[in-house]
Design goal:
The chain is an alpha+beta fold. About 30% of the residues lie in helices and about 15% in strands. Helix 1 packs across helix 4 and helix 3 packs across helix 4.
Length: about 280
């Protein structure tokens, strides 16, 4: 890895990793090469970018402290707010650079996603994006089959949260890192895609590889609970006045997604990592 890329990666990791995030560099050119022009990132091809994903640890290290902090403002989605807060801290950590952040949930006025998260994760080498086209002579006929990213260490127990773009930082000599193909057998890919598309509710697609860490039972319960009841589940059903009285230091102390519709998925255009109607990211 080029020294400049390695240094910027280290600085972003210093901001994010203790809160349960991972960071992977990529070139805008690699992302744009897989997509039609309407989905391109409008930056020079050698522009440096970083893919940000959350691991199971993010729930305890970032989300729960955030819900107790003065930064949380109901009723906006707590996970989206938490991710936006941490991505904003990345911008603050690089004051000498122009930094653009795109969260995975952001869309243009016409509802087109601003970033196709799974494509970005694949080109960054973070997680392999398994799609229908990866199954030779697939058995699904006219059915629409959504693709899904699998992380080599966490399986499906993770979520892609966004990208950090650095306009003006160009790295034409950066070499791509291929994502690890951890579901290489045709039969296993069929099982994965069918579990993801038709049996998402039982969580089993996430265990297609033996994960280093899974979501805790508390985390699974949180994401399976209707949004209006989630704060009460964690014992945090408090008024906005009570929330605003909590010191920011509570949040900054380190403790040691939205569904996608498979009928709208089209190869590399499939935007997210969440299951077709999954209870959580």
């Amino acid at each position: 890895m080029e020294p400049q890329v390695a240094e910027l990666k280290r600085r972003i990791e210093d901001t994010l990793c203790s809160f349960g995030f991972e960071v992977y560099p990529f070139q805008v050119a690699w992302y744009n090469a897989l997509l039609p022009p309407a989905f391109h990132l409008p930056l020079p091809e050698p522009t440096l970018a970083f893919l940000v994903l959350s691991t199971p640890a993010m729930f305890d290290r970032a989300l729960k402290p955030f819900l107790k902090s003065c930064y949380f403002q109901p009723p906006t989605d707590p996970v989206d707010q938490c991710v936006a807060y941490h991505l904003g801290r990345v911008k603050e950590s690089l004051p000498e650079l122009k930094v653009e952040v795109i969260a995975d949930y952001e869309v243009h006025p016409n509802r087109r996603p601003k970033i196709l998260a799974q494509t970005a994760a694949h080109v960054a080498g973070a997680a392999y994006y398994y799609q229908r086209q990866d199954v030779e002579a697939d058995p699904w006929g006219t059915k629409h089959i959504a693709g899904v990213c699998i992380h080599p260490r966490f399986g499906g127990w993770f979520a892609i949260r966004g990208v950090v773009l650095l306009p003006g930082i160009e790295v034409p000599d950066l070499l791509p890192t291929k994502p690890l193909d951890c579901v290489s057998a045709r039969s296993d890919r069929i099982t994965l895609l069918e579990s993801f598309n038709f049996h998402w509710h039982d969580w089993t697609y996430r265990d297609v590889v033996t994960p280093q860490e899974r979501y805790s039972e508390e985390q699974k319960a949180y994401f399976s609970t209707p949004p209006a009841q989630r704060l009460a589940l964690l014992g945090l059903a408090q008024s906005s006045e009570e929330s605003s009285s909590v010191s920011p230091e509570v949040f900054l102390t380190v403790i040691p997604k939205k569904p996608q519709n498979p009928n709208r998925s089209r190869g590399w255009l499939n935007p997210r990592v969440s299951s077709p109607a999954s209870p959580g990211p």
